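Regression report. Comparing outputs from two consecutive submissions.

Submission 1:
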Amino acid sequence: MPWWKQLLVEAYYRATLPYRWWEARHNTITGMAPIVVLFYHRVADDVSNDWTCPNRTFARQMCWLRERFDMISLAEAQARLRSGHNIMPAVSITFDDGYAANCEHALPLLVDMGIPCTYFVSTRFVLEGSPFPHDVAQGTPFAPNTPQQLRTLADAGIEIGAHTRSHADLGLVTDPRVLHDEVVVPGLVLEEMINHPVRYFAFPYGLHRHLNRAAFEIAREAGYEGVCSAYGGYNVPGDDAFHLQRVHGDVQMARFKNSVTIDPRKRRTPRFEYHHQPAPLELVEVS
């Protein structure tokens, strides 16, 4: 981001702080404090791309968050949403894909700080040891996690979740067999691999066009306790707790602060409704 744009974002954040403070206080009083679920991909200091966050930035963000928010698990986030009452702004940390570099600094830091984390993994790349196609296309074939790394993470308290088998865009999939292979099978494979329950599933890409109503239902029927999207929405007490909306953990601190303190502009993000709405009943006049 150009320096001048960073200044504009910082100015916007500071100018809206009084509103954010007022809204946060109002939400605390009424028990409607939102829950932000953040997602990251790769935390490392080497070759950077749009989905890599420097270690120092990640550590700074975690310290900033822990001073201001309840740092909670997805399970606790769901419990608060179901209760319809939350008096403390809260944040839950997640990761997508499954990069080996995350085991060097980021994940040990979370364990040391006592911050819960859910780590979503695409199983094909773990099993084959092959880089993700989107990294190969960028000329940065980063190493994925190994099965042993995932077992170590799970034993340390990191929640491992499923992120499809092949990092597929499920918004393009209509075949029920393919959906089963991408949604259900990865969870079973991971459970056998790590010897821990796999309770959550996250859609790759995660925007509205990448979601799939049938996949939501398949995930529920398979026994997943929740499904995550990634289009920038916030979670408010009373929302459907099965579908957790997530916000990107931006590397720019001004934009990061904007997002997690509930940006008034992003608050209006339309929620993806995966439920099939029944057709309206037709009133028939009886003579």
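Submission 2:
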Amino acid sequence: MKHEWYLSFHGGAEKEARNNIHVYSADGLELRKALEVHHLPPHVNLRELRGFTFGPDGNLYVVNAYYEYSEVLLFKGTPNATGQHEFMRVFVKGDKVRNPAVLHPFNVVFGPDGNLFLTSQDTNVVSRFFGPGSTAGLPGDPMPLPDAIKGTKMVSPGTFIPSAEHFVDGLNTVRKALFGRDGRLYVADRDADCVKIYDGKSGRYLSRIAAAGKPIHLLFRGHDELYIGCGGADSVLKYSLQNATTAVFI
């Protein structure tokens, strides 16, 4: 099996060559750009790509983060003859009325139930949308509010975790979110210097992991090791879920 790195560089308008996912070999050789751009429709403009993931349907979901776009783009999971993924459609689109919480999105992840979760930097919200295989709602549409925040005022459609502005256990400055094998949702709250943990079904706040240094990126290794990239401390922490201990890894 061939292994390759897929990397995004958060490129802006002044760095147009970076506005793609770049593919490297396992030993670091630059190979190609992952996204086929010559046949994109006029309304799709790659700008400040952030998080991306392969969904439960095998297709590639990419965060287009620039303010006026603020969307999740869907590309074919199987590359074409040139090794590139072809555009399918806009799966989630930020909108002042329909999806106001989707603004300057950062990270996309799928839950154990196959639904899509999206973090947005400018609203500090984790939003939830029906996944590609959903029969309960139209794929890409906002899902109902979870049990933990039903009845909460001032939350947008599809909100799963609100901002701290509207909810006592909400998020201050959200960055990456991911699910552990325990079914819980782990969310990097940068300015709160912690990783907040929520129940993956109800959205109920459970606990937090102290991570001084402004946590941004998260990665699980195995069942119980969580790596936390801290931009403010230029370090990577390793947290053991089994022992509830944190140590500097890099």
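Expected: both submissions complete independently.
Actual: both completed, but the second showed a warning that disappeared on reload.
Relevant detail on submission 2: The first strand starts at residue 4 and ends at 8.
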